[in-house]
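Human: For the file, kindly provide a plain-text protein record giving the amino acid sequence and the C-alpha cells, at your earliest convenience.
Assistant:
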Amino acid sequence: MKRRRTVRDSASIEPPPGYYVVGGGSPDPAQRALILDWIVSRRIASGWRVESRSESQVVLVRGQPVNHELHAFLTVFSCLVWGIVWAVLALVNRVERVALTVDAQGRVVTVGAP
C-alpha cells in the first residue's frame, strides 16, 4: 500500500541554489522577486492563498471566516439545534495570516499578522 505524500507546513522556505548572486553579493530586485515567487509557490502548494502582494512583500492567508449571518438564520429555523454546530465552528475555526518579505541580503523574513 502506497503512503500518501503530504506537503508539510514546516518545509524549508529557503529557495534552491541558483537564486542568489555568486560570490556572496546582495541580490538585485529581480532576484529578490524570484526568491519571493519561490516562497509563495511553496506556501500555495501547502494550502495558503495570496491576500495581497507588492514587489517585495506578500500577505498569505489560510482558513475562512465563519459566516455568522447564515448560522444565525439556520439556528433560528432549526429551533436552536444548529446553535451547537455554530458554537463549535466559532471556537475551532482559525484564520491565519503571514507576511513574507525578502530583505536586501535575500533572506526571507516571516511575520505573523493578526
